[in-house]
Amino acid sequence: MSEIHLTRSGPPETVLNLEPTEALTALEAALASPEPRDAVSAVVAAWPTFLDGWAQLGRLARDDIEAYAAFRVGYHRGLDRLRANGWRGSGYVRWDHESNRGFLRALAGLASSAAKINEIAEADRCELFLRQLDPAWPHGDYDG
Fold first, then answer.
1. pTM of this prediction?
2. SS3 state of residue 7
3. What's the whole-number mean pLDDT along residues 50-55?
4. What is the DSSP string of 52-96?
5. Within 13 Å of residue 62, how many CA atoms lie on the same side as its CB?
6. Which of 41-45, 67-71, 136-140 has the lowest mean pLDDT?
7. Rounded to whole angstroms, what are the CA distances from 51 to 34, 41, 76?
8. Gyration radius of the chain's alpha carbons
């Protein structure tokens, strides 16, 4: 279980558990490899719940549809992980916590890729959700 922090000035905050060290090391090596897309795909196959793996696979996608699919999987896996860590559909999931970044990258990537395939309502929902999860969300389109 991860920590859920209650604040005096707002909703609770969920912090996801860190990914396994082996998965983080494998992703770092995959991103540095000559064929990063294939290498990241192998990392995701080995650790299918690795949120940043899905986000990076979306970033390395060959086209907008492939990116959308990878980001969507990362987003849905992230919702599952959030719920398993005590999130109940509302509250903060902030970028400040390294362990939350894979989910937020997947959500931001989903927003960006949805816009690119003209899923404007979904892109807007994802952008709003990002700002609800972290009102200080510092990023525009997902850029890695």
1. 0.89
2. strand
3. 98
4. HHHHHHHHT-SSHHHHHHHHHHHHHHHHHHHHHTT--S-SB--TT
5. 4
6. 136-140
7. 22, 12, 9
8. 15
